[in-house]
Amino acid sequence: MSDPKDPQDPQNMPDTEGAPETPAEDAAAADSTGDTPWAEGGEPTSKEALEAAADALLTPEAQIAELESQVNDLRDRLLRAVADAENTRKRAERDKQDASKYAMTSFARDILSVGDNMRRAIDTLSEEDRQGVPEPVRNLIEGVEMTEREFLSVMERHGVKAINPHGEKFDPNLHQAMFEAPDPTRPAGTVMEVVATGYVIGDRLLRPAMVGISKGGPAVAPQPAAEAAPETPADPAPEAADPDKPTPGSKIDTKA
């Protein structure tokens, strides 16, 4: 026997057949049939809905201003991209030129010792010693000098130039001071001796010139003491003016 108070008893459950549908059920049924305004594109996201609502509220003038802003932004991006591409092209061209100009840097630095040895061999004999040597030895020395000149010419043809700063002012960017000696005949900081020739390749320093520089400078001649100037006589004191004597330029009253 069923309990009349039991809600789960099938006999006590209300009959829902023929009952009117609720509004929620109507909305669900409408969604299931696809009769919503967004049926063609699917249900929009919240961002899309906000953008669509904002576009609907914009006036024609506001829409034109928005489009002009987008065009300006795209133009700015395009100009930046073109500038970046041009800078990249110039950088690549500069790197290519540097690679071609300084490709022989390591080779040139290693072969400098060959030129140094030829110069040392030439400097071993002075002009007086050359006069007393046999003809074959003199010819050998001249051949070494010609070889050195050809060596420097070939190096310069490939962008390597020698630095011989004798008598010039010391430049720490190109010279390396090996010693310092007093020399009153030269200004202080003058290159008085070149121990080893320096070299540059292009606009880069390949090897600094090793030099000796002067210290002190020429002696300054003492200035003669100023002679005492002769005393000038003082001007005589002006005489007291005579009231009865007319002064120059004044008119004399002739009326008694």
Automatic annotation (TrEMBL):
Q: What does this protein do?
A: Participates actively in the response to hyperosmotic and heat shock by preventing the aggregation of stress-denatured proteins, in association with DnaK and GrpE. It is the nucleotide exchange factor for DnaK and may function as a thermosensor. Unfolded proteins bind initially to DnaJ; upon interaction with the DnaJ-bound protein, DnaK hydrolyzes its bound ATP, resulting in the formation of a stable complex. GrpE releases ADP from DnaK; ATP binding to DnaK triggers the release of the substrate protein, thus completing the reaction cycle.
The organism is Candidatus Phaeomarinibacter ectocarpi
Positions in coiled-coil regions: 64-102
Which keywords does the record carry? Chaperone, Coiled coil, Cytoplasm, Stress response
Example GO molecular function:
adenyl-nucleotide exchange factor activity
Family, per entry: Belongs to the GrpE family.
Per UniProt, subcellular location reads as: Cytoplasm
One GO CC term on file: cytoplasm
- Any Pfam family from its record, for instance, is GrpE
Name recorded for this polypeptide = Protein GrpE
Query: Biological process (GO) annotations?
Result: protein folding
Q: Which PANTHER family match?
A: GRPE PROTEIN (PTHR21237), GRPE PROTEIN HOMOLOG, MITOCHONDRIAL (PTHR21237:SF23)
Q: Ranges of Low complexity compositional bias? A: 17-37, 218-240
Region called Disordered, residue ranges: 1-45, 215-256
Identify the domain of life: Bacteria
